[in-house]
């Protein structure tokens, strides 16, 4: 065999050995068309968060804080808007679709009113994640996943807690008419309480009237020994109403704010059902970034639960620090 032929064979063998020892190299940039189809496939991701929160509602301020912090950390442009009127909320969704945002995060307190707008977003190639309420409609409308607490389970836990405290008659205070999540909370409370449960409709946008209605209910029926409010601001009104008439009823509530933390410490509120709404703002922005950049879908077809977590005197000092900074 000639020296030239031997040299060629050695070179080929070396190249084969090198090839065998080197694994496939990861692509630095995804190939065109490899990722999910969206209206904004490259460049900074723009996400519209559209909730049914009303002006001055501390709960939704925490959701907004979570979304905006995720945006800062991930380099995502987050735009938060809200409207308590379902028709106006649908228009906000339509506007976001017209502006071709890269992702939508929507709370669905009134799913039927938002159905067409959300489905139009999905048809336009905009990925949607629902939050907070409307869990049972989320997949049907084409959303990637739902982030929130299961309202029926949360209500059931609240009812059980009152039952463990030895309460016999419970008043569940609804503050937003037509909000399916609040109806589910009261229905769950009935299951967990396994006793006499009544509901009372108030208007969160009229705090003085809400307090008056709660005061009238506990004054008229002295056998009411438990009041469950579905919002931290309404809880403060319930405490005031109960004290005004000398009722023996105790208050439990959904959601936290600094007033509820103080009321738990003082013994005026016995517990709060915390759905950790900061996560409802933070996680969807993270999920949409993963979906846009890596085609990830979180949840495996099931909702991602953020609660319930019951906060009482045993945990309020720890959790209260985070409420103070606007992240719980």
UniProtKB/TrEMBL annotation:
Keyword Coiled coil: no
Annotated signal peptide: 1-26
Residue stretches in coiled coil: none
Superkingdom to which the source organism belongs: Bacteria
Family named by the database record: Belongs to the bacterial solute-binding protein 2 family.
Subcellular location: Cell envelope
Keyword Signal attached: yes
UniProt name for this protein: Sugar ABC transporter substrate-binding protein
